[in-house]
Amino acid sequence: MGGIAVNNPPDGSTHDLAQSDRGNFTSLISEIASSLVDVRPETFDRVLEVILEKVGRFTASDGAYIAQYGAKKQTLPITHLWSNKSATDAGTLGADLAAAHTRAFMGELKRSGLITLGSPHAPSDKLRREQMLLTDAGIPPLLSVPLGVKHRCIGAMGLFMSGAPQAWTEDQISLLKITAHLVTSALHHDRIEEALSNERQLLRTVIDNLPDYIFAKDTGSRFILNNTAHLRLLKASVQEEVYGKTDYDIFPKELADQYFFDEQDVIQSGRPLVNREESVLTEEGRQRWLLTTKVAWRDSDGNPQGIVGMSRDITDRKEMAEEIEKHATLLEQANAELQARNQELDEFTYIASHDLQEPLRKQVAFSDALREDLAAGDLNEVENDLATITSAAKRMQTLVRDLLSLSRSGRQAMDWEEIDLNQCVEMALDALEIRIEQEKAVVTQDTLPTVRADKTLMVQLYQNLIGNAIKFHGAAAPQIRLTVESNAEEHVLGVADNGIGIKPDYWEQIFAPFKRLHGRHEYEGTGIGLAICRKIAERHGGRIWVESAPGDGSYFKFTVPVHPGDSAI
Ligand code: ADP
Fold it and tell me: Which of 149, 205, 248, 328 has an alpha carbon 20 to 30 Å from 69's alpha carbon atom?
């Protein structure tokens, strides 16, 4: 290295590079610079070692090194080292060099930007200990510059000779400074790369371990990132299979359109789309429900880059909610039924304590009378007592039978079938034949429709209404009309008579069990017939009511739905 002057005291430096060496100097720097451009992480260490060797040889040094702080600046190991053949064992050399890079050494280096130890000009008093350490190791003279960006020192880079003290030339110093500068930038870049890669890895680990679907799309709504869960949903095993695809490649056009326009809106407006419920069809054709949020993704200057989306599969939750709702509805129905049954039970209790007790009391009273009359030998009275007891027993029998009939009309399972109401009327009239003849009743009827209903219950309904129409006649013989008016939803069926009629106050009440408007001596009955009629109409999903004017006949009407569905019970 002819051009580099040594031993040039007292200022310890010189700059007399020969013209040819100046050219080499420049080309070495550009060589170093270009070897650091685009250096790949895996070859970075090797490149640094080559640089150290080149600089070492160019400056005719015996060695060159780089020291870098470890985590939290606790240690400062020699990370890269080159020494010529005459140098001692690299491991020991590295350790000796590292030992000399004390806190004081680095402080001074940071402050002054340059340290020379073992040169003929006076070393810093503060670093006497370090100089001794190096002298013992046979190292100095040593030239060291800091590695650092702005005010952040990340280590040191230096050259050393073994042997006699000597001065470092300005060119040696410049070359080391320039190289340190280039190496710092590359190290800084490498550290940023490493930090970025770590961060990328961290994010990837997070999103790939989330059960939710996470994805990112560019401004053209093309997939550029999908987490593992989302890839699985899209039946892909690696990112490349989906990268660059759009929803049009995956979903039906209608769905893809919706996603696309939603996303374009998010990208352009910057407004997020939050918790949108979406349904997708899986490859197996299963419908799944997603709760999706899409937010705009912008670069640090605010330029749109696309969207980031998050979807949560809520199918199970939704199915469970539907199931719960179904159960709730069933529970509600069961509750309503239970209430109705309770009310019925109340009615039964009421009846048992009133209407049933009346004939019972009569039987008890007349049994006592019978005993007395028998003792007195009054056979006429005995006959009378027995007749009253029998009539009370019969009344009880009727009451019990009607009660059972009411209970059955509410409980018995419905036997749904298509039935001709004309036939039901015929059967009801057959059962009422004797009374019709007795009262000379005349029955006329419209042609009645065929409906979906329970035949037995329909016969009973007509029998009760026609029976009442015969029973509650006025002075004239009963004239009874059976009518029908139909619309798309229901048939309105009617039983009209010319009997005594009913005051409007009672139009509603008469359908309650045991409600009667007359004494038993006027008109025989238990007051249960219309309650049964109402129950039958309601079980078919219909209603029943009366229109009447006292003295002017009654017109009972009930409906049967054309399509008995949910309303029937
Ligand atoms: P019942 O016929 O055993 O008395 P219902 O429940 O059939 O019991 O009728 C209740 C009451 O409604 C009857 O007691 C009567 O007062 C009145 N009612 C029923 N049908 C008619 C009718 N066609 N004309 C006038 N009143 C009627």
Answer: 205
- 515: CA distance to ligand 1 center in Å? 8
Residues 134 and 257 in one domain: no
Range of the domain at 163: 3-196
pLDDT, tens only, 495-525: 999 999 999 999 999 998 888 888 878 888 8
Do 189 and 262 fall into the same domain? no
Q: pTM higher than 0.85 for the full model?
A: no
Give the chain's length: 569
Does some domain include residue 431? yes
419 lines ligand 1 (CB under 6 A): no
Question: Measuring from atom 11 of ligand 1, which residue has the nearest CA?
Answer: 516
Q: Is the shortest distance between the CB of 527 and ligand 1 below 6 Å?
A: yes
Pocket test for ligand 1, best of 516, 521, 544 (most atoms within 8 A of CB): 516
Q: Tell me, what CATH number does 283's domain have?
A: 3.30.450.20
Asked if 122 and 265 sit in the same domain, the reply is no
What values do phi and psi take at 161, rounded to 5? -115, 160
Domain contains 304: yes
Which residue owns the Cα nearest ligand 1 atom 18?
468
DSSP string, 538-566: HHTT--EEEEE-TTS-EEEEEEEESS--T
- Asked if residue 296 and residue 322 are part of one domain, the reply reads no
Q: If DSSP codes are grouped into helix, strand and coil, which group holds residue 481?
A: strand
The pair of three-digit structure tokens given for residue 496, joined into one six-digit string? 């009209």
